[in-house]
Design brief:
Arc Repressor Mutant, subunit A; globular; 101 residues; mainly alpha; 10% strand; 3-stranded antiparallel β-sheet; 4 helices; 3 strands
Length: 101
């Protein structure tokens, strides 16, 4: 039986990618989120926009005065870290009852 990811799991995957791949502290690019989130470009762009709007991801801006030549980069926010923590607790709870999220 094939198990598809739920929207909540996809959100968690993208937030984990933003958290775990941000080793330099300057955020991660959209291509990293596409690859680690295992989604198409258009779906990732839409989801990232929703996550920024919800305050779970933050768009990293170098300097507001300069013309932006580099593509956008993203990092997980404190609210996003809290989401992942709560999601992990709920996932563990569900697995105790033999359920998959």
């Amino acid at each position: 039986m094939v198990h598809y990811r739920t929207q909540t799991r996809i959100v968690a995957d993208v937030l984990r990618a933003a958290r775990d791949s941000n080793t330099a502290g300057d955020g991660v690019g959209i291509s990293t989120l596409i690859r680690k989130g295992n989604m198409s470009y258009s779906r990732t762009i839409k989801l990232v926009g929703e996550l920024v709007g919800a305050g779970l991801l933050v768009e990293v801006v170098e300097k507001e005065d300069e013309v932006r030549l580099a593509p956008s980069r993203y990092r997980i926010s404190k609210k996003g870290v809290e989401f992942l923590h709560t999601y992990a607790q709920f996932d563990e709870f569900a697995q105790m009852f033999g359920l998959q999220l």
